Amino acid sequence: MKNLIVVVGSLIVAFGFNFFLVPYGILSSGISGIAILIGLITPFDIGFMNLLLNLPLLILGYFKLGKVITVNTLICVVSLSVFLYLLPAVPVTDNILLSAIFGGIIGGIGVGLILKYSGTSGGLDIIAIILSRISNVSVGLLLTAMNGVIVLISGAAFDWNIALYTMLSIYITGKAIDSIHTNHIKLTMQIVTTKGELIRKELLESIYRGITITDGYGGYTLEKKQILMMVVTRYETMQIKKIVRSHDAKAFINIFETVEVDGEFARN
Q1: pTM above 0.90, yes or no
Q2: Is residue 210 domain-resident?
């Protein structure tokens, strides 16, 4: 299922490139942007260059991100290269501003889906994920920052109007990625239950997170309860709620966004 979503995400990215960005010489973010640039100024195919430039970063991803993400990334890079080759570079609109905006949105949606389901679109995504795990800065923000060099290349190779449209498109892509790929958002879960020990055991077996437990009692019933506190990612909340409800249907769960985590927290 994940592999299929990665392929669909790749198709969405290729659609955004070939129907909105490439016809106007607007570059995308990362290695794909460099591949577009090379394809525009040389006879080399954009899809082929995207595959070639991503190979060394795929090797880096294998050692730093693990086998699952690397395999999904390889699927993405190959399928994206094929889709870029197959889809014609035909503009949907004759308005370059609309092309920059919607190309950025569509590309960001595609990349966001790929990242959400344990893949990357290759290139700078791999570096951004590694840095995000170290720094806790969002992937979209890191990609936007790193892609400043793409804007400079665009300005030098074409003109600064195109460079500014490229900057706009890359910024929108980063925002679209962060709206879908929310793994950098940390949540604090407080679970008030009478089945604390049973829930604790299953959580520790299923979720790679620390748990802090305190004793309490109901203000109305005076019934003894346990309060479990965890800091988790957004993707883990559904699994945790399912575990809690399997042991205590009446448990009270309070979830709120965590502004900052200072201390030991597994980011993978």
Answers
A1: no
A2: yes
